[in-house]
Structures are given as structure tokens and as C-alpha cells.
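Kindly inspect this chain:
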Amino acid sequence: MKFNYRTLACLVAAGALSTSAMAETPIIGLITKTNTNPFFVKMKEGAQAKAAELGVELRTFAGRYDGDNETQVQAVENLIASGAKGILITPSDTAGIVPTIQKAREAGLLVIALDTPLSPASAADMTFATDNFKAGEMIGMWAKAKMGDKAKDAKIALLDLSTSQITVDVARNQGFLKGFGIDLNNPNYMGDETDPRIVGNDVTQGSEEGGRRAMENLLQKDPGVNLVYTINEPAAAGAYEALKSFGMEKDVLIVSVDGGCPGVRNIQDGVIGATSMQFPLRMASEGVSAIVEFAKTGTRPTASDGLDFYDTGVQLITDEPANGVDSVTSKTGLAMCWG
């Protein structure tokens, strides 16, 4: 049999080109706190779609539970060893992960924190996140406009996440109060305001049961509550159930933050008056784009004007628009929501 050396040479050359192309395909890592939370599921969807569009390889990792730093450390080390160009991470332990993130940056990877800043935030090259102060401010402005002259006699229940003064918790709370027209003492600390319209603060742990319990506690303190701020939409749903059990659900305005699909449906159903929607898909999608740009040109992402992070946007959702406050309806919101 006559062997065709020219054909073999062509096959070898083609194989070499293919191998070279594969080796040059940038690797990007996405590390989330868990792979079950709808917020992080939507992040993964956004990263996968953008990676496919830009022709890069996305490798995804997640903690076994919220707070699982060890698994995230292993994921970063895996990506360093794989020669990845960059990492997108929602840190479970914002301080505990920092030494490993430093190793990644020293190895030349671009590291972007998604949604949750590292501690310190400068430990990452950039944070891509919601402007949580603005998110709170928008629902505060809406509530003030909606109540009109009654705003001066508001009795406000503040349903926070915890007593730990976590950055996102403080920002949403203080933004809401500013938007409603309440003077802040220290905008980096919640609970030090002296406005008599504030009935009090209680904690929810961001859960429906926590929201119910906190609402019951504050109603015992003052049964005249007529405005409720909640850290997120599950807490809002719990607050509503507590109000309903007292026959007060039609007399109290509830506002919240997140923009998950169950929360937007609660806008439709009249459970929540307004919510500020954040965009996890956009966070991850724009993060992938930033790492690809870095891999091509060495250009690093920069913060949004007036902020120390890259703002991925927020949108007020309500079916009761108020003068001077930009918003879209729940119908529009359902086309953009997550979870």
C-alpha cells in the first residue's frame, strides 16, 4: 500500500493548529457562594452565555453551602494552576479568601468580586455590584411620594438583615431613609437615627420567617406602623403575612430590594408596593467581558463615576408609579427578573 506523506503532513499541520488554538483559548473562572441560590444560578447563566458569545472557556465552581470558604480557596488554586486569565467570585468569607486572591493576582489573573466586595475591597481588581444605597434610596423616594402629605406622620418599621452592620445591609437601610427624607447621622451605620417617625429596627436574616417575626415584634412596639422597609423580598413576604394575621395588610405600605421573580409577582399581587431590582446576570456577563478585554489588551476595568466599584444597575419595579420617580411595571419586571 502506498502511503500518502503529503496527506499526513497536512493532518499533522492541522492538528498542530487546532492544539495551538485550544491552548490559546482564555480560561475564565466563576466561583459563587452556592449553586442553588437563584441569584447565583442567574449569574452562571449570564457568564455562560457571554463566554459562549466571546469564544472563551468558562469553568464554574461553587461552595457546598453559604460560608464555605475552603471550597472557594480550592477553586481559586485550581484556576491559578490551569493558567486562567481571570476569576469572577462572590466571596463567602470576604476576608478569609483574601490571601488566596492575592496569590491569583500575583500570578497575573484579573480578579473581579461580584455582588459582595472583598474585605478590603481593594483586594480584588474591581467589584461589579448593585449600588445598594441607590437601591434603597429609590424605594424611599417612591414611598415618600406615594404617601404624600401623610409621609410627615409615617410610622416606619425597618426590617434589616442582622445586627452585624454588613455593608449591603447598611447601604440599603440608609439609602431608604435618605430617600424618604430622614436625616442620617453616620451613613455607614444603621440604627443611630433620631427621627421620631422610626418605630424601630429588627432583624430577619433575610428569610420569610424572620420577616414575620420581626414584623410581629415591631407591631407590639407600635401597632400604628404604616410603612415597612425590608432588606429583601422574602423578608417582605413574611412581614406581609404578619400584617395579614392582624388584618392590617391593606393599611401598610411595604417596600423592598432584590428583583427576584417571586418578589416581582408579589408586586402584581399587591403584597409589596415597590422593589428595587438588581441584575445578577448582567454582573457576571459584564465581568466575563472585562476579563476577555484584559486578556487581549491588558486593560483593567474601572469604577463607575463617583463610586469605588463598577455599578451594574438597579431598576425600580412598581404597579403604582409615583411622580418624579422613574419606574417600570411588574409586567416589564417579570421579563427581567431572576429566580
Observations:
- The chain has eleven helices and twelve strands.
